[in-house]
Automatic annotation (TrEMBL):
Location of region: Disordered: 1-40, 233-265
Protein name: SET domain-containing protein
Basic and acidic residues bias (residue ranges): 1-15, 240-251
Lineage of origin: Eukaryota, Viridiplantae, Chlorophyta, Mamiellophyceae, Mamiellales
């Protein structure tokens, strides 16, 4: 498939306010009905849908229950146990796009707004990533290089989020919460927190806005990525907005400073 029409992959880096980064049970979408079963002694957020704090594994099982294990703090600074660090969060799955043929990321069950994930990989300099790595590299702490998820394969699930097409909306965005130190040894596992900005239905794609620079620097055309099997939420049409004139439009919080296309550290 021609590069000019190939859907883009890695990543614009939106920043958020401190408030956005806080654990807040109010983030649970209005339509969200908790089905998770919590494990005694594990602090939770989102009305029991996910473990809270960095000492416990953030991953959840396909049936909606939380993992309940301690984070594997001996081998990484990420909020995942050894099992989920290796297999990824079971709430998500890497699959092949039926039309484009490349890997995408979908929800294995209904997920609530506010559900957190981590974009993780090895800490490197921009140059050390190589061409493939630069397409997927995520901005890390200022002066700390970038996060290269490629060596981790499918376990680093978030690298497979597509960019929403012109008629679609993103549903997962980065925050300014990082895992790992600015100057930790090269190739140490580090990460950046992501949070769902809207409810995501089972089977739907997780989408991240890469940023205009990502496309401009690669001369790649944005295409809609939703399909019958793995839908992507569409932008609201004018008529729908006219039907709800009092509804506040959401404020875009995209900041250009975190776009990896310009993060040549
Ligand atoms: Zn786990």
């Amino acid at each position: 498939m021609c590069d000019r029409v190939r859907r883009a992959r890695a990543k614009e880096r939106a920043s958020t306010t401190d408030a956005d980064a806080q654990d807040d049970t109010r983030r649970g979408g209005a339509s969200w009905t908790p089905t998770a079963t919590t494990r005694e002694g594990v602090p939770t957020r989102l009305r029991g849908a996910q473990a809270k704090g960095v000492s416990w594994c953030w991953a959840t099982r396909a049936n909606g229950s939380i993992c309940g294990a301690r984070a594997d703090c001996e081998n990484s600074c990420l909020p995942y146990c050894a099992e989920h660090l290796e297999r990824g969060d079971e709430a998500l799955r890497v699959v092949k796009h039926p039309v484009f043929g490349d890997k995408i990321l979908i929800a294995t069950r209904d997920l609530p707004k506010g559900y957190k994930t981590v974009y993780f990989g090895e800490r490197k300099t921009w140059r050390e990533c190589g061409r493939a790595g630069r397409d997927h590299a995520m901005h890390f702490r200022s002066g700390g290089g970038v996060i290269d998820p490629c060596p981790l394969g499918d376990a680093a699930q978030l690298q497979f989020m597509s960019n929403p097409g012109p008629n679609e909306v993103s549903n997962n965005r980065s925050t300014n919460v990082f895992f790992g130190d600015t100057r930790c040894p090269k190739r140490t596992l580090v990460g950046r927190e992501f949070i769902l900005s809207r409810d995501v239905k089972k089977g739907a794609q997780l989408l991240q806005w890469y940023g205009a620079d990502w496309f401009n620097s690669r001369d790649i055309k944005r295409l809609d990525v939703g399909c019958d099997v793995y839908p992507a939420e569409r932008k609201k049409r004018k008529q729908e907005r006219a039907d709800h004139p009092n509804r506040e439009p959401s404020r875009a919080k995209v900041l250009g400073d975190a776009t990896n296309a310009s993060s040549r550290r």
